[in-house]
Amino acid sequence: MPQQSETSSTDSLIVNVDLAERSYDIRICSDQLSSVGSSVAEWLDKRLGASSTQQSALVVTDRNVLAHANVVRSSLEAVGFRVELAELEPGERTKSLPVISSLYERMVEMKADRRTVVVAVGGGVIGDASGFLAATYNRGVPFVQVPTTLLSDVDSSVGGKVGVNLAAAKNLIGAFYQPLGVFIDTSVLATLPDRDYRSGLAEVVKYGVILDAGFFEFLEQNVDGINARESSVLRHIIARSCELKAMVVKEDEYERTGLRAVLNYGHTYAHAFEALAGYGELLHGEAVSIGMLYASRLAEKRGLIDAAMTARQRKLLEQIGALTALPDPAAFSTEDILSKMRLDKKTVGGQLRFILPTKMGHVTTFADIPEADVTAVVDEFAAG
Ligand code: NAD
Question: I need a labelling partner for 352 at 20 to 30 A (CA). Which of 25, 144, 311, 342 fits?
Fold first, then answer.
């Protein structure tokens, strides 16, 4: 079990991701972004025995979070780093090989070496792309994440998956590459658009359903604090989500044993919705939010849970403003949804796999669900 502990500062939390020599800390705090430089220096010292004096850093960010990235830049400079900043276009298209190639050139120009640290300041797009840059430049340079979306706080910055898209498929090119550390300051979420915030919350709810009934209850009891983006509530839900994901990643770091698949609750339906809507139309967390309800209904049909369990998830998702239905549930045909599901890279030998709840806080993988049940759920939602 990863440890969550209070640091000396009154309200910072540390979640340790326990992966042998690749272990690292996630520091979760509020209103402390200007101290990120000290954390980066500390992590470098610990891992590489390298002092930050005379050391260089490339801060990678996008236009929408430039103000936060500039705070990170100043903080790194204050502890002795020579810093360059690369500002990328916001959006999924930035996760591409041409963008990575331009960043390689930039690192050559700044005479980056094996000790140059790449610091990602942004959401999952910046984190995934920068992590891929760090994993591949000079066969691997130190990498630190400073996530700025709720989704990147609780999902993409934990577990070491980095990569870029090809036209043929999302996230097809990539690596498993763990950072030296992750610095999460909840105050940066104040500028996050509402839609992105609500989309990230769906992943938080997912952790409760799949792994922790008590955490799900905490969310139910703290709806007002969640909606108000209260710092203390945010620190707790981010820390617990990171802890739960870290626990799963520790058991199946390279996605080999199938254990990591529990994180895909709602994703079999969600990936089909995302693909059919066109990537970017439906945010990932929005698709997951809706997909969880479809999967939960499927579990009901299989006699695994009762209707109250789906109703409980729907109520919480509604209360926190997450999507609970497709904008037009009849827009995609049942056959289209099924064929997208069959193409999903998480299917094994063409067999659809579903992660379904058996009770609050527990899920199981099923590879033997009759397609008739899968499509019956789609038809039900389409009928409204
Ligand atoms: P994103 O990085 O595109 O960020 C969403 C939008 O919010 C962008 O326009 C961004 O500029 C803006 N933004 C970010 N932080 C902001 C802030 N604090 N204030 C104002 N604007 C802000 O999207 P995302 O949802 O964070 O991440 C999605 C990406 O994450 C996808 O590419 C997905 O494949 C990837 N992902 C990776 C993993 C993983 O394990 N590596 C897991 C889940 C998702």
Answer: 311
